[in-house]
Amino acid sequence: MLRVNQAGEYGATRIYAGQLAVLRANCPEAKLISRMATQEQRHLKRFNDLMAERRVRPTLLEPLWNVAGFALGAATALMSEKAALACTDAVETVIDKHYGRQLDQIDDQDPELASDIAQFRADEVEHRDSAREAGAANAAGYPLLTATIRACCRVAIELSKRI
Ligand SMILES: [Fe+2]
Ligand SMILES: [Fe+2]
User: Fold this and answer.
1) What is the pLDDT of residues 95-146, one digit of tens each?
2) How many angstroms does the Cα of residue 158 sit away from the middle of ligand 1?
3) Span from the CA of 115 to the centroid of ligand 1 (angstroms)
4) What contacts 150, CB < 8 A, 6 or more positions away?
């Protein structure tokens, strides 16, 4: 769980880095995204610390998520500001379900981890809702774009669990 979660939070920081590299620094979308990126940094740091404490190795795919995350962020931001938000909408939809399933699995076996996941999940849902409120659905091709990104996230999750 720690390995896949750390990979996901790392990927999130790379997506936002790609978006912020492309978006005009003072547009409302960039401001929203930098706020979310700060929270992703906090999520990532916590999973990094837990992995070190519990001697879990990171996924071998980290170099791939470095490049793929940044590319996804940059590509969606190049499409439009709203497409950048649609990317957050799609990613956080998958992450909400992923963290929800983990919480069901953990049950009462690991309260420390469960409490972190529950907090981060609330942040991710807030990211998803802010992106929607800021007009993610107005992105051109929203249904296909978000379905594609959701499918990519699911594949990334499965790979990071295994490798
Ligand atoms: Fe996160
Ligand atoms: Fe997030």
Assistant:
1) 999 999 999 999 899 999 999 999 999 999 999 999 999 999 999 999 999 9
2) 17
3) 14
4) 90, 91, 93, 94
pTM equals 0.92
- Max Cα–Cα distance, the chain, nearest Å: 45
Report CA(41)–ligand 1 centroid distance (Å). Answer: 8
pLDDT tens column, 67-107: 999 999 999 999 999 999 999 999 999 999 999 999 999 98
Taking the centre of ligand 1 as the mean of its atom positions, its distance from the CA of residue 118, in whole angstroms, is 11
Q: What is the DSSP letter of 107?
A: T
DSSP for 53-75, please give it.
HTTPPPPTTHHHHHHHHHHHHHH
Q: Nearest-CA neighbor of 17 among 57, 64, 72, 58?
A: 72
79, 109, 127 from 159: Cα distances, Å: 27, 25, 24
